[in-house]
């Protein structure tokens, strides 16, 4: 005869075995959903180099770049039954040295990021609770307040374009983070490009990376980087003033 402790251990072992087996199937099932339709395109809108303290904890003044960009991305195909959220980021790749003969690899710096959560499933705990156990309003004043807020939300939603989860349409977006260099100089740095990357965090399984990141595993899809550009001269310097005068003379 088995004791109650042995029976509890057997039931718990069987439960963990089944749970791990189901989790493994869920993680491997993503391979059947390659998401070839994922696409992201970024282009430069404006860039300027300023000398100052890029962060509040900076101890000295240095040159840093502020960038504005346009982003068009459709990552809705990356959402499936095993997707928890997607981390999307825009990064700049530029030369690590201002010398043309340098053999150093390019530096990469993230300038903007966001997290896109997966839409709530109709079979989630919160959805089922609201369906079978709806919250009761305590007073008619709250009902009127809810009606007014819902009406205002409907009018504001009708004005704005409704986008599917994973679709980003950003125009003249300001970067969240500035770009600085260990040398303290960034003006007139050559061959700078902007690109888009993402990480797909599943409920179960490994973290998936965007194509071109060099990491594995990675998803399918297409990433269109911006055209190469150069950082402008330091704002307020003689070089920037001369370029502004030349552009003004050409337009005149």
From TrEMBL:
Its main location: endoplasmic reticulum. The chain crosses the membrane at residues 12-33. It holds the Pfam family SPC22. Residues 136-162 are annotated as: Disordered. Keywords: Endoplasmic reticulum, Membrane, Signal-anchor, Transmembrane, Transmembrane helix. Essential component of the signal peptidase complex (SPC) which catalyzes the cleavage of N-terminal signal sequences from nascent proteins as they are translocated into the lumen of the endoplasmic reticulum. Essential for the SPC catalytic activity, possibly by stabilizing and positioning the active center of the complex close to the lumenal surface. Essential for viability. Belongs to the SPCS3 family. It comes from the Eukaryota. It comes from Aspergillus pseudoviridinutans. It is found in: Endoplasmic reticulum membrane. PANTHER family: MICROSOMAL SIGNAL PEPTIDASE 23 KD SUBUNIT SPC22/23 (PTHR12804), SIGNAL PEPTIDASE COMPLEX SUBUNIT 3 (PTHR12804:SF0). This is Signal peptidase subunit 3. One of its GO terms (cellular component) is signal peptidase complex. GO terms for biological process: protein targeting to ER; signal peptide processing.
